[in-house]
Write a structure and sequence with these properties.
Length: 100
C-alpha cells in the first residue's frame, strides 16, 4: 500500500520535498520510493514490525549499496521520515473534517 501511495505522489509531479535534497543522486525516483517505503514501515507500522523487519533491513542495505554515502543516505531517510509524518498529519486532519 505504501508503494502505491508513493508512486501516485511521485507520478503526479508532487515532488516538493525533493528540492530539499542536496545531492542530485538522491533525486532518483527509485531511491525516493524505497526511502518512503522504509519510513512508512518505521513510522506508520511499528507495532507490526515482525511482518516487515526483514524487508526493512534488505531495503536499508539496498539503499546503502546504491548511495554509498552515509550522510546522503541519512539526508534521504530524514526527508522521507518528514514526508510520512507530514502526510499522515494531513490525512488525519482531512478525515476529521469529513466526519464533522
Amino acid at each position: 500500500m505504501a508503494f502505491k501511495f508513493c508512486f501516485l505522489y511521485i507520478g503526479s509531479g508532487g515532488l516538493g520535498w525533493q528540492s530539499r535534497l542536496c545531492t542530485r543522486k538522491l533525486k532518483s525516483p527509485e531511491l525516493i520510493s524505497t526511502a518512503i517505503n522504509l519510513s512508512y514501515f518505521k513510522k506508520a507500522a511499528p507495532k507490526h514490525n515482525g511482518l516487515w523487519i526483514d524487508k526493512y533491513n534488505k531495503g536499508c542495505k539496498y539503499l546503502s549499496k546504491l548511495i554509498e554515502d552515509e550522510n546522503a543516505e541519512k539526508e534521504l531517510l530524514d526527508c522521507a521520515d518528514n514526508y510520512i509524518v507530514d502526510n499522515s498529519i494531513k490525512k488525519v486532519i482531512k478525515d476529521k473534517r469529513k466526519m464533522q
